[in-house]
Amino acid sequence: MPVSRTADDLPEWRRRTTAGDFAVWGAWLAGLALTVACFEFISGRTIWAFVWDAPTQGADLVQRMFPPAWTYADVLWKPMWDTINIATLGTLLAIAIGFPMAFLAAHNTTPSVLFVRPVMLFLIVSSRSINSLIWALILVIVFGPGMLAGILAIGLRSVGFIAKLTYEAIEEIDRTQVEAVTATGASNPQVLAWAIVPQIMPAFAGISVFRWDINIREATVLGLVGAGGIGMQLQASINTLAWPQVTMIFILILGTVVVSEWVSARVRHAVI
Amino acid sequence: MSATAFDAAAAARAWRPPPLIASPLLRYAIYGGALLYALLAVGTLEVNWARAAEGLERGARFIAGFFPPDFVTKRHDIMEGLMESLTMTVVSTVIGVALSIPVAVGAARNLAPLPIYLFCRAIIAISRTFQEIIIAIVFVAMVGFGPLAGMLTLSFATIGFMAKLIAEDIEDIAEEQAEAVRATGASWFQLLAWGILPQVKPRLIGLSAYRLDINFRESAVLGLVGAGGIGDTLNTAFDRYEFDTAAAILIVIIAIVLAAEYSSSWIRRKVQ
Amino acid sequence: MLLTLSGLTKRYPTGDLALKGVNLEVPKGQVMALIGPSGAGKSTLIRCVNRLVEPTSGSVVLDGTEITGLGAAALRRARRRMGMIFQEYALVERLTVMENVLSGRLGYVGFWSSWFRRFPRRDVEEAFRLLHRVGLDHMVDKRADALSGGQRQRVGIVRALMQDPQLLLVDEPTASLDPKTSRQIMRLILELCEERGLAAIINIHDVALAQQFARRIVGLRAGEIVFDGPATELTPEVLTTIYGEEDWSQTIRAVEEDEEEAVPA
Ligand SMILES: Nc1ncnc2c1ncn2[C@@H]1O[C@H](COP(=O)(O)OP(=O)(O)O)[C@@H](O)[C@H]1O
Ligand SMILES: [Mg+2]
């Protein structure tokens, strides 16, 4: 933008944009150099012969994947149902923990800015940095393989997500509504329930449903580390190179995700 | 008091707090559905409670195994995995963002002809439906183990994420502004550069920074299916019961995510 | 005296000295207008009374109770006796009219009764009576964000009255309303104060409106009281001390015209 403006603008202005131009070009150049260097690194760890073979491999893979093993679907209904339950129960768990956490973390509702808030922010970041698959990996070691590890993994990962977005919503509320309720002589819990909760409810419902939608996707792969759901079947089929079964699983996942996305969009539309 | 007869007592007796959902039919349908789901979900939950109870004790031992975290013994492996993750993150974000722009333009109904629109929307849908891990499985099957598969996976996921949000942004921009540029007789590319780009640019930068953050977090799990990165190292540590090394890796991941989060929110504030 | 402020001083953490040792007495049942330019400290003054803003020094005594220095629970009980009305109405937008009105009783009911909206029948009856009085009894279950400005301010007034207060603290009640609605709202507040024998401090920066509706006027300038007297003594000289140099003849003439106009209305 600055370049095109200089033509009819004042000279001083032009000098400044020229300096800006250099900075911008420099940044682009540095970014490009960094990207190329990174790619070199990856390239050094790649067996290119395999990559050149990829089109053949791909074509071969597609050939082996079709037609899908339609009858395999009969075995998949239960794991799919488990997957949905992992996502749903995990999200409910995260809501139950994340909602109060958000109030402890938000600047305007936390009982202590110096102590409670930093602790909550640390818990939130830890929960968010660790992918649900890693959570699952840990929990499977602790609780053994199965749905429980999956539900807890989804829950632990989602707590941070829900708490973070919710506390941001709490920090953005209209303060005068809070003052008005405080001025009536309401107690702190009453102010929370009457002035703050109504204001964040739509955002909170939207956040929860949005996370549920994400969790459906996440739950489809938890089985790869033994945490229940359809990922277990996926793992088994891949290990036995049963590609038509893999295709069938993909189709089922696709269908479920499309439906969950539709549901989530409808609910978010309804609450806003 | 006013002269009109108004029976406050009767009105008060008749008044009920308004329910959350106005239509009684819908209300009971939703309550009934929720109850039914809860029964079904809990009824089909397969949890080995005995094993889970044992888990608490195991968990304690497990957590004890985490302390103190061991950064030293496997420092070479950790560095290697970290470099793979970071390079993968940078390259895939750059490639993904670059490719997402044409896809976003193609997926904006107000700019693209129908066939292109449908094609671009299909790319977005596929990329968003499948969890990164599943896509990584396919790429590993095609190009072999290593960070290249991870890089391709993340690039593909970035395209879907960015293109969807940018396309929505393009569709939302003030139509008059685009009209004004079009009225000057500008070509389609000039329209893009003058009417659309300035409006979506801040969001494009903000989203790219956010996606960089996500890509790093994802790069930490792709190793579970052989697509390179720190996840590979982590998985190995878990497999060998080297929990102190695993703890060190988790701490490194959290630290980097924290750093990324701060810098990406800083970038977003800058472009706002 | 219902309310006595002595040596009330407020310094914000930013360093702004908003009130400089204000002394003020308000007898039972008196409606008083507090005028002054923007930034004079009017809002700060009434917020110090119910301690939405914590005074830096000085004392606030309401009907024999020293408000400054009360603990949290006692402060809540004291707040029940002071109803507050806001410029931007400050209704909880996503709650219904009735819920907003009942929120005036929060200081009197326990948490769980209020959570389940179980208010004593007397409170609900009183709510209906007051809503009828302000002409909103047909809108009880409408959401607050569906109301017009004038209607919202009526709900705000009813919420304050539900507290069964002795004193109303009113912060620019008409600043967001059109001139006609402004007058109606001011008249309503005055009538209600008279009916119930309430005292009120009304912040207002519309001099004409203040003069028309309040008998006693207090002028605040830069955190200090520079005028305290009956509305009839509000001369151009006085206005100059409050607001600074300006041609006041227009304003004062406008007031007189307004008054004539207001009589048949
Ligand atoms: N929350 C606050 N923090 C810092 N300074 C404030 C705050 N509120 C008001 N002030 C300052 O106090 C002074 C009086 O403000 P205020 O009481 O709102 O005046 P008025 O209501 O008469 O317009 C002003 O100088 C204002 O800048
Ligand atoms: Mg003010």
UniProtKB/TrEMBL annotation, chain B:
It is found in: Cell membrane. Its main location: membrane. It comes from the Bacteria. The keyword Translocase does not apply. GO terms for molecular function: ABC-type phosphonate transporter activity. Keywords: Cell membrane, Membrane, Transmembrane, Transmembrane helix, Transport. GO terms for cellular component: plasma membrane. InterPro entries: MetI-like, MetI-like_sf, PhnE/PtxC. The chain crosses the membrane at residues 28-49, 85-105, 134-159, 245-262. It is a multi-pass membrane protein. Belongs to the binding-protein-dependent transport system permease family. PANTHER family: ABC TRANSPORT SYSTEM PERMEASE PROTEIN P69, PHOSPHONATES TRANSPORT SYSTEM PERMEASE PROTEIN. This is Phosphonate transport system permease protein. It comes from Neoroseomonas alkaliterrae.
From TrEMBL, chain C:
CDD domains: ABC_PhnC_transporter. The keyword Ligase does not apply. PROSITE patterns: ABC_TRANSPORTER_1 (PS00211), ABC_TRANSPORTER_2 (PS50893). One of its GO terms (cellular component) is membrane. It comes from the Bacteria. Residues 3-247 form the ABC transporter domain. GO terms for molecular function: ABC-type phosphonate transporter activity; ATP binding; ATP hydrolysis activity. Keywords: ATP-binding, Cell membrane, Membrane, Nucleotide-binding, Translocase, Transport. InterPro entries: AAA+_ATPase, ABC_transporter-like_ATP-bd, ABC_transporter-like_CS, ABC_transpr_PhnC, MetN_ABC_transporter-like, P-loop_NTPase. It holds the Pfam family ABC_tran. The keyword Cell membrane applies. Transmembrane segments: none annotated. NCBIfam families: ABC_phnC. This is Phosphonate transport system ATP-binding protein. It comes from Neoroseomonas alkaliterrae.
